[in-house]
Design goal:
The protein contains 14 helices and 13 strands. The chain is of the alpha/beta class.
Length: about 425
Amino acid sequence: MAEFRIQCSGCGATVDAATHLPFRCPNAAENDNIDHVLVRTLIGPDATFPDSAEPNPFIRYRHLSLGYHLARANGLSDDQYVGIVKELDDAVATVDGKGFRITPFASVPALSDRCGGEVWVKNETGNVSGSHKARHLMGVMIYLRVLEAANLPAANGLRDRRLAIASCGNAALAAAVIARAADWPLDVFIPPDAEDSVKQRLAELGAQLHICERQPGQMGDPCYLGFRKALEAGSLSFGVQGNETGLAIEGGQTLGWEMADALRQAGADLDMLFVQVGGGALGSACYRGLVEAVEAGVINRVPKLFTVQTKGAYPLKKAFDAFGADGKNAARNRSAYMTPWPTEPHSVAHGILDDETYDWLALVEGMTATGGDALIADEESLREANRVARETTGIDVSHTGSAGLAGLMNTFREKPDADLKAAVLFTGIER
């Protein structure tokens, strides 16, 4: 069997996933100025990249999953693990009308013609709950189910704890769907301006809503602060912030693996990848997934990574610029790079207005390693990108979901190159 390691990228602490949840670093302490994020690594011949037509990504890529190797190392068979995934996926389909399937990723000629280079689109609007967010949380729930099925020490008392998430929309809906499918109570910490349709659906799914007002002079996202208080009181993190639910990154890596699979089948390589960034989980997951695909020989190279934030809030851009000036010991000097946005952020792309980029260091290191950049898109660019996206693809994507395209269009406008292959992810449906 493959060996798996869970290690904090900030302090180096390791976690045994059979006895302790690989969510928050056990050494993490308030104001210690260390960037604690738990990262999973798989080593060995059984951690193989598949050549498979299996439509469920959590079954197709199971040999790349910590949950799978944990299950096999503790007496569960391959069939038993697949059964766990199928049972949970069937429950998700009962709740949401569909389960998890490989999502489309292909070159779009009409969009390429508008942008001046070859543009590939990963369409996540048809995913469970209408966005990519459920990918992250399905991976976490599969792991929790493995703990229960194998009767491992980390499962002790789990069902006595409520799940908790901080979100303004898509992540909350994803968490509510997965939690309902798993019959697990969920608390959702959301802002007062969350859309009524989102709040109604969350209530229908049985989630307990907590409206978090921003207090005068308060630094940081009030929803995240409320979520942290719930964790301190004993709740179980079920969000997509890498520093709080480290294993959530792995579930999102299925998107990177799918992109690599599609590129392999097309005999193509990407030159550039543009990803919209709020908390950072999507960007770091896609980047790590593509790195693992290169290491497995599936694709030839990792594309240049470009992150896109709005003028309403761009903490990652500030961190990237500081890192480029002096990136020494960044993991142990977090406040020199990543700090809460000083004012309440606003944008039409409201889903990426996180006060902090929680998984910032992985993205900064990825952009540095690949020669990418941290971009900022203004409101006009975000609206133009959404209009072009909908006109050329027919995809009912939201402004948040098409924000990465704004970065691509601005880049290609300044430096057009028809020979470049670039990709974006349309990550959320218009609600």
